[in-house]
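Dear all,

This email documents one entry for the complex benchmark we are building for the journal club exercise. For each entry we list the sequence lines for every component of the assembly. Then comes the predicted three-dimensional structure of the complex as a token string, followed by one or two observations. Please use this as the template for your own entries, and keep the labels exactly as they appear.
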Amino acid sequence: MTRYDESRWHEELILSAKDKIKQQLDQAFAPTNAHPRLRFIQAEIRRLAAVYSPLGQLERFIYVVTALVHHQRYGGLKPRQVRQLIELGSAILQAQGIKPRSSRLSHLHAELHQITSQICRQEGSQWQAAWEQSYSNWLGQGHKGPEPGFAALGMANRALRLGHSRFAIAGFAEAEQLGLAPANFGRARLGRIKSLRLAGSLEQCLALAYLTRLDERLSDAASRELGWEETCANVQTTADLAPLRACVVRGKCHYESTYLIEAFLWSACSSRTNAREGMPKLSYIARDPRLKPQRLGFFYQFALQLERCYLTEMPLTVRIRQLGKLLAETGRLVSVDKELLAWAASARWLARSKSYALASLALNEYEALSLRLSNGTHHDSLGLMADMLARDWYTGKTADFAYSAAPATTWGESA
Amino acid sequence: MSRPGPHREVLFLPGTGDAAAAPLNPHAKGKALSGETESDGSRPTDDGEDLPGY
């Protein structure tokens, strides 16, 4: 067994300590044993507080980051605990004399902010997540680490979530070029395909998807997602939802709660009132123990509320208020395409319920996000809302204008 | 215990008490159960990135 100089922190010692701790945790705790694993990690952080050697403090730092990574994957920490762990990690690095940017080990500061970014993303603070990721890259000073494209992948993901598709497309390509582990390669390639689709570059999107099919590095889950992306791109081209519905029938590989709910939202965006025919109700999906859509959290809550909006048993005012509460939190959706679906499907229902001012508000959000994603070239990223964008109550071309602002005919004109 | 002052990081130096000393909340649920987040980790584009080495 290789023995390293333990009197100070250096790259070999860090890699060796990380590897040892990861192996120890993986051997002792199954992935389903999330809470005992977190309790053990916390106990180790407490124990190592009294171990003042450089190696002891290095292990303590690694356990701190491990606790944050665990929380990002499985939860279990309170916001205060997360904040204090980040501060503890930073304090350990400072106590060891590792300065941000100037130290050769400054990438450890970057790691702390990378995981902070992921936690912010999970919590719905998308701008903060992008800032933390960018700050992390700045701190790391271009340190490539064991996976050189990792920082670029993180930044591309954050950029896409904010709707900055131009940066995202370039970032995903850069991440691939720099080098990624197979799982992250799949994420980068799928991210680029999705960015192209949402930016309205459908030909490029489908061409890249075709090339990706030939790549052996894709996992089964990534191949399934690729098939979904191709289907969505075709729906955007033809506005025909039949292929999407066919993907989510029982027995097909997309018969999973996440795809079923997404297909439901796509169909709720359609101008055809029978678009949801033949699809299972979300309340039915919720009772199937194999699907468990409740695991999807806010995405499921939102779709369920939209389904309830179409049930007339509850007063319209109540349904509108409940939908509004959820629309205020669309940042909690972890992907930007789901946010597009949320705005579009809500605008469609609000228009059907003749609540045109509210529908305009949701539709304007949808249009603004579409324009942002496409760098100002496409008003309708999903290709299903053209009829609504042309309605008089939205465009302001007639007295039916529903939005309490200046008529749309003056928008865009120079002052 | 004194309140955090301007040099707050000192409070978290080894052996001085820190976040890890706080007991795990037995009622805190995982992210999937809490309803606070969306991803169930089943879709590659939804579950973020895996920090290398952890």
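Observations: Chain A has 20 helices and no strands. The radius of gyration of chain A is 24 Å.
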